[in-house]
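Hey,
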Amino acid sequence: MLEGTLRGLPNNKAPLSKSLLLVPSALSLLLTLLLPHCQKFFEYDLQAVKNDFQIWRLMCGRIICLDLKDTFCSSLLIYNFRIFERRYGSRKFASFLLGSWVLSALFDFILVEAMQYSFGIAAASNLPSGFLAPVFALFVPFYCSIPRVQVAQILGQFSITNKTLIYILGLQLFTSGSYIWIVAISGLISGICYNSNVLKVHQVLCIPHWLAKLFSWTLEPIFSSSEPTNEARIGMGATVDIQRQQRMELLDRQLMLSQFVQVRRQRQQQGGMINWNRLFPPLRQRRNINYPDGRQSEQQASPPLEVSEEQVARLMEMGFSRGDALEALRASNNDLNVATNFLLQH
């Protein structure tokens, strides 16, 4: 699990994500607008690597995007994936990027040779350039560790969640070229390998402490940004209804946090378990608004719901204890997303 692999001190300033957002984008614009004759040195040509031993193309061809559409999409994705650097720390985040970047080069060779052998398709000279494989690799921890929260519905059946826009950007990047799917698949495979700790790759492909300190002295003063505020983040294209809903949820979270602080203080003074049922009254009250008075009183008087062991197991896989998982699920009326979001904040 990524939680075990990338455990470290959080870094809310996210200097690495910001540097990956600005530096490659600036170089891509520079090569496209001012130095087009130098683009040949940054082409990702595996045929030249194999036949002419131009090993340097494995590095130069996999850093800067030569297509501005790929630059734009990958920059937006890196900006959204900065949550991993803020949660696990810059060194652990950089280690994941390095590991997936190195592993994806191996899988690129395997996929290209498989296509050549099976279908006679020569794709070695047509692979897209840029820092693309690690971006696709980040979809693995994004899918596994970021909870899905519904923000709207279309036609009553199709849900729009907090992750929908990211998947749409990934699909746009996936379909931007003829052979970019090779880089995407190799990136996803490398992300799965690093995320699952196959053959303990995270112990081999990691950033040394001395190098992490060196870059923290150089990058952090230049690219660091202020810490995120407690205000609700409104996604691009959000409607007024979504904004109003998110503000209501923000008020609920602030109330729950204040109650949690009070209960924790009482627990430290008196000892014992935290009464999680006191932390979720706003959510329950808002859910009961849609019911008649008789049904509402009946629901409040009903015994605690049975907790699904599968949901408990999913929360325990994220690193939470069984006791906290049980109490959070009971208090949230078996709503896995609400329970996960609250546990992640504490």
